[in-house]
Request: fold
Amino acid sequence: MSWLEVLGVVLAGTLVGLDLASVPQAMFSRPIVAGMLGGLIVGDPLHGLAIGAILELFAMDSLPVGASRNPDWGPGTVAVGALAGEHPVILASGLLGLVLVAVVAAWAGGWGSHLVRRANVAAVAARRAALDAGDLRALRAVQYGGLLRDAVRALAVTALAFALGGLVSSLFARHWPGPQQLAQVAISATSIGVALHAGVRLAGSGRQSLWFVSGLAAGLLVVVTWLR
Amino acid sequence: MAEVTPAMPASRRVLLRLFVIQAAWNYERMQGIGFGYAAEPALRHLAGGPAGEKYRQALARESQFFNAHPYLAGLAVGAAIRAEFDGQPKERIERLREALCGPLGSIGDRLFWASWLPICAALGLMLFVFGARVWAAIAFLVLYNAAHLYCRVWSLRVGWERGMQVAGAMSTPVLRASARLAAPAAGVMVGLALPLAFGWQLVGAASRLALIAGALAVAVAVTLRLLRGRAGGVVVTSLLLVATWVLALLWR
Reply:
């Protein structure tokens, strides 16, 4: 991967990380988009999209409801999407390594958001008198400072995921004495299991859950017919 | 004759700044700083201009605590700006901001985070599985943002038009119908997408392998359900993936 591509990945990861909460919340940070962007930078959007689709299943369990601390899937997915696009012929064990790094990066991104929010509290406290007097300069300083802190967070998470992704992916690909199907089953079972849990939670209980169950039944029917 | 609502001053700049309403999100004022920043271009047009006392008082007021769904925050921003221009007492404006936090957060979370986003994500996944390739991600973005952008524009306009009576906008037939239909639609779409995504991941694999993966997926879902938030999907997933690697190492 050229330096220009690495720069593109870090820049895209930063922008996608900002999308989580700061600007503009247009869902560029969802894995299905972020993975494609990562792959696109290295000239292979499809493999980036494929890993993005797997990670989208994990992300279904972490909808950004309320003021809670949510995993940030964007920056890590851009990084692993680029790595998947760079090495399209990847073993299932290597893919499992990339998925693991993206999951850890999502957790680190959420934890970083918490730190940024705490730093923003300190920035507000430092300018409280000016803010309460309606000082525009103080307001701008806090606003732009928050944006900058979030950008630094997203950049750091992208860089971390990019560096770790290459290492862990090759480690898992080279040191995997077991069958590759084990990795394939692990990826499918965890991604679908997490998404299934999200679906059950979304559906709630009573009559509401019947909609989810009917969708699940219809999907199973289609997939059984298709796999035959 | 119907009363004509004057145009909101600097409405485009206010709308653009609404996209960064959460840039300085913090545990003390939450979206308050972003609220003040978004309202500021309009407040400059208050009597006395940006050097006037009215402007400074309004800016200080609008930068206090606020939290709502970001897409619907425009309703509160528009209404608060209108109230400032109408010369409403400061206590009434503060009460209006406080009163809007809960309902705007609740409606927005239900409509967007718990319904529209899962619907669009599930559709994107299904399109990808059926071979739409990059169009799957593009369709997801376009569909999701059509509603997102419409909501941003609509909320600011209606907030400004209704002012102190903005609460009525939350019970419009369109919003009520959307709230009623969105959750069942999300349930169906997510339910439909999961088996398809599962089939795509295991296409070509032996049926015994698919059965094992399916059983394990159910086990993962049940485990997460039993943990009930004590450990999130991210932690459980990380542990399971690392455990798989250890299992592979022990295989020989």
